[in-house]
Amino acid sequence: MAKPSILPSGMKLVGDVSGEEDFVVFGLVEGEVHVDGTVVVEQSGIIRGNVRGRTVTVRGVVVGDASADASIRVDDGGKMVGDVRAPRVNIVKGARFRGHVHMVDAGGEPAAVPSKKRRRRKRHSRRPDETAAQGPSASSGRLPAEPTVPGTLRAAQKADTVVGDAAPDMHRRPPAPRMPVLRRSRARRKDSPA
């Protein structure tokens, strides 16, 4: 197994990095990183550019998009600004992340999300008039229909009106009495000159 390439702390690399081995960053990289192995950005490491690898682990700072063939992980204390694209993305509690997450399958295509089928409720097409006219049946086990009380929704449905309409069998409340307006008047003393 080959040793990983390491950029030590205090070193600054300007330009693109590419290779077949793992790459561990303790310093600063200003450019894109494309490796076939694992990219690890340690706590003191900073990458300003896009990152691509088999797996990407961020414990430091990455400013740019990241994509991986296997997984991307942003650890506690890690900071990332950019979009991530991988089959598995893990953003640990305590990590700072700003961007979009794109879940893809191993081939790089967007992952298929199973759709939820909506269940339709069966509606009964019988009207309240028909059920009341039929009465209780022994085979269905239904209870007898309740008597209709004027002013209720059942009474409004029977009369084909809407609650609040002026229907003959519905009682309307009289308007509330108006409260008298009290006015404050100044009391004059009798001994004061007019």
Short description, anyone?
With 194 residues, the chain is mainly beta. The chain has two helices and 16 strands.
Characterization of this structure:
- With 194 residues, this protein is mainly β.
- The protein has a domain at 5-103.
- It has two helices and 16 strands.
- It has helices at residues 128-134, 153-158; strands at 5-7, 12-14, 17-19, 23-25, 28-30, 33-35, 38-41, 46-48, 51-58, 61-63, 66-74, 79-81, 84-86, 88-91, 96-98, 101-103.
- Strands 1, 3, 4, 6, 7, 9, 11, 13, 14 and 16 form a ten-stranded parallel sheet that branches.
- The longest helix is centred in the last third of the chain and has 7 residues, at 128-134.
Tell me which oligomeric state these chains represent: single chain
Euclidean distance between termini CA atoms: 114 Å
Spell out the helices and strands N to C.
Answer: EEEEEEEEEEEEEEEEHH
Mean of residue pLDDT values:
77
Low-confidence stretches: none
In what range is the share of β-strand residues? 25-35%
Q: What Rg is obtained from the alpha carbons, in whole angstroms?
A: 38 Å
Secondary structure tally, helices = 2
Helix content: under 10%
